[in-house]
Design brief:
Elements: H1 2-25, H2 27-53, H3 58-81, H4 92-120, H5 125-148, H6 155-169
Helix pairs in contact: 2-3, 2-5, 3-4, 4-5
Length: 170
């Protein structure tokens, strides 16, 4: 019986250690998902207010919601999400321009999803907006990382650095 407790204790410690490694490794993703949810919530609320309550055109409502939520998202990402391996070489204005350049690319599928869902398929606006925000959010995470974090010069350089780090840990 004591042997089983020892094995259980050891495996619990290993599982806890693995969990801590995963959280540390994917910290930015987890925090991005939390603040991304807030930005998507802002986007959805602004869109629904403009489109449903004030009866503005879908494209106008979607574009204004896009601008408001992405300004909030930029602030969230810069101050709370990407705090490790931060790019200090570029100014906030430079990051803002690059951030919105990527996000404008995501505005195209964002608007197309809303157009197809509302005008052609006649689906519920809230449902379409939620699906839209999930799909666009995945694309945005991938592009946002490159704005706020220092990127390695190439895949070869990153692989070489990773191998060197592993050797240093041993």
């Amino acid at each position: 019986m004591a042997k089983n407790k020892k094995i259980s204790s050891s495996s619990d410690t290993n599982i806890r250690h693995l969990g801590q490694k995963l959280i540390k490794r994917h910290h930015n993703l987890v925090v991005y998902m939390i603040f991304g949810f807030l930005a998507a919530l802002i986007n959805t609320i602004v869109f629904m207010m403009l489109h449903k309550w004030w009866h503005s055109a879908m494209v106008i409502s979607n574009t204004i919601a896009f601008i408001v939520s992405n300004l909030a998202s930029f602030f969230f990402n810069q101050k709370a999400v990407f705090i490790n391996n931060v790019d200090h070489d570029h100014t906030t204005w430079h990051k803002l321009v690059v951030f919105f350049a990527y996000r404008i690319i995501s505005l195209i599928p964002d608007t197309l999803i809303m157009l197809v869902g509302l005008s052609w398929m006649h689906l519920n606006a809230l449902f379409v907006k939620i699906v839209d925000q999930i799909l666009v959010g995945i694309f945005n995470y991938l592009t946002t990382r490159s704005v706020f974090q220092v990127q390695g010069n190439s895949i070869f350089t990153r692989a070489k650095n990773h191998i060197q780090e592993r050797k240093n840990k041993k």
